[in-house]
Design brief:
- The complex is a heterodimer.
- Chain A has two domains: 31-74 and 81-111 and 155-234 and 343-396, FAD/NAD(P)-binding domain (3-Layer(bba) Sandwich); 120-154 and 238-340, Polyamine Oxidase, Chain A, domain 2, CATH 3.90.660.10.
- Helices cover 29% and strands 24% of the residues of chain A.
- Chain A has helices spanning 3-12, 16-25, 52-63, 105-110, 157-164, 166-169, 210-214, 226-233, 289-295, 300-314, 318-322, 348-356, 379-395; strands at 44-48, 67-71, 83-84, 92-93, 98-99, 118-124, 129-133, 136-139, 149-152, 173-174, 179-183, 189-193, 198-201, 203-206, 219-221, 240-247, 255-257, 266-270, 280-287, 323-330, 363-365.
- A seven-stranded mixed sheet of chain A has the order 8-7-17-18-19-16-20. Chain A has a five-stranded parallel sheet with strand order 10-2-1-14-21, covered by helices on one side. Chain A has a four-stranded mixed sheet with strand order 13-12-11-15, with no helix packed on it.
- In chain A, a hairpin with a 4-residue loop joins strand 12 (189-193) and strand 13.
- In chain A, helix 8 (226-233) packs across helix 12.
- In chain B, 10% of the residues lie in helices and 68% in strands.
- Chain B has one helix at 2-20; strands at residues 25-35, 41-46, 48-55, 64-79, 83-98, 103-125, 131-155, 158-169, 177-191.
- Chain B has an eight-stranded antiparallel β-barrel.
- The chains are: A alpha/beta, B mainly beta.
- Chain A binds chain B through residues 14-19, 21-22, 25-26, 28-29, 103-104, 106-107, 110, 112-123, 125, 127-128, 141-142, 144-146, 148, 153, 164, 274, and chain B through 35-40, 78-83, 118-129, 131-132, 134, 174-180.
Chain lengths: 396, 195
C-alpha cells in the first residue's frame, strides 16, 4: 500500500497510524525466517540491485554462507534510500525518510543479537497543520490527533543499511553495472551488464525498481511470463520529487498540505522536526500528477525558483527574503530509478503473489513492490520482501 | 501553575454542587473512553444532581423528569503508545427522561483540563529491541466541551450509556486542536439513603 493511501485510509476512518503503532509496539521481536529453515542450495546467486531489498538479501546469503555477487547500476548502494550530509547539522533523507511501522522492525531485519547499538527515534507527531485550498491557508491542527509516524533522530535509513548490513557485503557489490540482459534459458543464468560483461550464476534475484521491469529495460531470455507482465502493467509508478530548502527563519507550520488533507501527495513539512538543530529546513514531498509540474523542469535551479515563488505567494514573500540554500532530488530523472514507488490497484495481494513467483527455480524477485508479508512501498517492506525471496531461494 | 488553578476551580465547583446534593442515588460511571473514536482509554465519573423537576407537556402525554447536575469525570487515554493523556472534566448536564420509559437523553456543557505526556524521542537496541524513553514533553490543554449522552436503564440501579463530546483543545503553549470523544459505559446508581 502506498504512503498516501495508508494515511488516507486510516485517517479517513479516524484511526490513524497511532492506533496501529500501539498494537505494533506491543508485538515482541520475531524472526522473519523460520528457526528450522533448511538451506539446501549451495550454488552462486547474482543479486540485481543494491537497494534495501538487494542489500538485505545479500546480508542473508552471507549469513548462510552462500556465494553471491551484487550488480548495482549506480556508483553507490542504497537505491531509493539516499543521504545528504553537510547541508545543515543533521543528515537529510533524500529518499525514503519516514518509518511507516514500529521502528523495531529493524531488529527483525538485522536479526543479530551481537549488534548491540541504540537507534534514536523521533515520534513524528506534527502539531501544526495547514491546508492550502483555493489560495487560502486553513489551519487543520485536529489532524495531530491521529497522524503519527516515526523518523530517525540523528541518522537516516541509508545509515541503517550502510552501517549494519553493508560492512558484511561490501566486497561483493559491483558498482556501475546496470544489467541489460538476463538469460535463464540454460542450466545456469547468464546476466549481461551495460559494459558488455557477462556474469554467470545458478540463480538470480531481481530487486530493481518495477519501472525498470515495466519499461522493459532488462532483456529477459525467455521473456517474462505473461501473467507477470500483466501484473506489472496494473501497478502505477508515478513521478516523485523531494526538495529541501533552508531558511534563516521559520514561517511555515509543521506540515503544509497543498492538496486534500487526506491525500498528502503534495506536502511541505518541517524537515527539522524533532531534530537537535536550530536550522530551519523545509522539505517538499511531491508525488504523482502534482510532481509533474516540477520533475520536467530543465534544472534543479528552475525547481527551486518555482517552489520559492509558490511559497512567496502563500507567505507574502517571506520565503525569498529568508532563503539560504536548497537541494533537489528528482527521482524521476534518476536513470536507474525513474520514479517513486509502487501504487497498487485493488487486489494487490494477488498481484504481488504473481510478481514474486520464481521462474524456473532460477529467477527470483524482491523489492518494495513485492512484499507479500507486510507493507509495500516502504523501505522496511523492501527488506521484508528479501527475507521472503531468500527463504524460497535457499530451500530450492 | 495554571494546571493547579484549574484543578482548584473544579474542586470548588464540585464542593459547591456537592453541598446542594440531595438525591437519594449517586451514579458512579465506568466507561471505555475513546478519543477520536479509537484512541483507547477509560473514564470514571459521578453526577451531583442539584435540581430535579417533573413536567407533563400536554394532556395524556407522559410526564417528563428534568434534571440538572454537575458531573465530574476523570479520564485516561493513550494515543499511539507514546502519548498519555490525563483529563479532568466537569459537565453541567441537563437530563430529560419520560417517566414511563427507560431511555433518557442528556446534553451537557463542560470544561476540562487535559495534561498530555508525550515521548518525543526514544531509542531501541538493535540486538533485542529493548526500548528506552529519551525525552518526554508535557502539554496542557483546557477543553470546553459540548456533549450528548444517550442512556438506557436495564434496571433501576444500572444504566448503559453512550456519550459523544466535541471538544476544542486550547493551549497557550501548544497548537490548539480539537477532537470528538466517544464514551461507552455503564452507571451504577448507588443508594445514599440510610433506609
Amino acid at each position: 500500500m502506498k504512503r498516501k493511501d495508508f494515511l488516507k485510509n486510516f485517517a479517513t476512518l479516524g484511526l490513524g497510524l497511532s492506533f496501529f503503532s500501539t498494537l505494533l509496539s506491543s508485538c515482541d521481536k520475531g524472526s522473519l525466517l523460520p528457526d528450522d529453515l533448511e538451506v539446501n542450495f549451495r550454488g552462486k546467486v547474482l543479486i540485481i540491485g543494491a537497494g534495501a531489498a538487494g542489500m538485505t538479501a545479500a546480508y542473508l546469503l552471507k549469513r548462510y554462507g552462500i556465494d553471491f555477487e551484487i550488480l548495482e547500476a549506480a556508483p553507490t548502494h542504497g537505491g531509493r534510500i539516499k543521504k545528504l550530509s553537510g547541508f545543515v547539522d543533521f543528515p537529510i533523507d533524500l529518499g525514503g525518510e519516514w518509518i511507516h511501522t514500529d521502528p523495531k522492525v529493524m531488529v527483525d531485519l538485522i536479526d543479530d543479537e551481537e549488534v548491540s547499538v541504540d537507534i534514536d527515534i523521533i515520534t513524528y507527531n506534527p502539531q501544526t497543520f495547514q491546508v492550502l485550498r483555493d489560495g487560502e491557508l486553513r489551519s487543520r491542527n485536529f489532524a495531530n490527533q491521529f497522524y503519527s509516524e516515526y523518523k530517525f533522530k540523528n541518522t537516516t535509513w541509508f545509515d541503517f543499511f550502510d552501517q549494519y548490513m553493508v560492512p558484511h557485503i561490501r566486497d561483493r557489490i559491483r558498482y556501475e553495472r546496470p544489467v541489460v540482459g538476463i538469460d535463464y534459458s540454460g542450466e545456469r543464468v547468464v546476466v549481461e551488464d551495460a559494459t558488455g560483461t557477462f556474469h554467470e550464476a545458478d540463480k538470480v534475484l531481481v530487486t530493481v525498481p518495477i519501472s525498470i521491469l515495466k519499461q522493459d529495460l532488462i532483456n529477459f531470455q525467455p521473456t517474462l511470463p505473461t501473467d507477470k507482465i500483466e501484473a506489472l502493467a496494473t501497478i502505477d509508478y508515478p513521478p516523485i520529487l523531494k526538495v529541501f530548502m533552508e531558511f534563516s527563519e521559520r514561517f511555515y507550520p509543521d506540515i503544509l498540505i497543498r492538496d486534500g488533507l487526506f491525500e498528502q501527495n503534495n506536502l511541505l513539512y518541517d524537515a527539522a522536526f524533532g531534530k537537535d538543530s536550530d536550522h530551519h529546513v523545509l522539505g517538499l514531498f511531491c508525488i504523482g500528477e502534482d510532481a509533474r509540474a516540477y520533475v520536467d523542469l530543465e534544472s534543479d535551479e528552475a525547481v527551486l525558483e518555482r517552489l520559492l515563488a509558490e511559497l512567496d505567494a502563500i507567505y507574502e514573500g517571506r520565503a525569498s527574503q529568508t532563503y539560504r540554500q536548497g537541494v533537489v532530488q528528482n527521482w524521476s530523472k534518476e536513470p536507474y530509478i525513474r520514479g517513486s514507488y509502487s501504487h497498487f490497484q485493488e487486489g494487490y495481494r494477488s498481484t504481488i503473489d504473481t510478481l514474486i513467483e520464481p521462474i524456473d527455480g532460477k529467477v527470483y524477485f524482491a523489492g518494495e513492490a513485492m512484499n507479500p508479508v507486510g507493507q509495500t512501498s516502504t523501505v522496511h517492506g523492501a527488506g521484508e520482501s528479501a527475507y521472503v525471496a531468500i527463504e524460497k531461494l535457499v530451500q530450492a | 501553575m495554571k494546571a493547579y488553578l484549574f484543578f482548584g476551580i473544579f474542586i470548588l465547583l464540585g464542593f459547591s454542587a456537592r453541598a446542594q446534593y440531595r438525591a437519594s442515588q449517586l451514579p458512579l460511571s465506568l466507561a471505555y473512553y475513546g478519543n477520536i473514536l479509537i484512541n483507547p482509554g477509560v473514564k470514571i465519573g459521578t453526577e451531583w444532581e442539584f435540581r430535579q423537576w417533573e413536567k407533563t407537556p400536554a394532556q395524556n402525554a407522559s410526564p417528563r423528569q428534568h434534571r440538572l447536575s454537575l458531573d465530574p469525570q476523570l479520564a485516561f487515554f493513550q494515543q499511539g503508545g507514546h502519548r498519555s493523556n490525563f483529563q479532568f472534566h466537569l459537565d453541567l448536564a441537563y437530563r430529560i427522561q419520560k417517566l414511563d420509559r427507560r431511555r433518557y437523553a442528556t446534553w451537557a456543557l463542560g470544561l476540562g483540563y487535559l495534561q498530555q505526556s508525550q515521548v518525543v524521542n526514544w531509542s531501541f537496541n538493535l540486538s533485542d529491541g529493548s526500548r528506552q524513553d529519551v525525552e518526554r514533553t508535557r502539554r496542557h490543554y483546557v477543553l470546553p466541551s459540548l456533549s450528548y449522552e444517550w442512556g438506557f436503564f436495564s434496571s433501576p440501579r444500572l444504566n448503559w450509556y453512550s456519550k459523544f463530546s466535541f471538544a476544542p483543545w486550547l493551549s497557550a503553549e501548544a497548537a490548539n486542536t480539537l477532537s470528538l470523544q466517544v464514551e461507552i459505559g455503564l452507571k451504577w446508581h448507588w443508594s445514599t439513603s440510610k433506609n
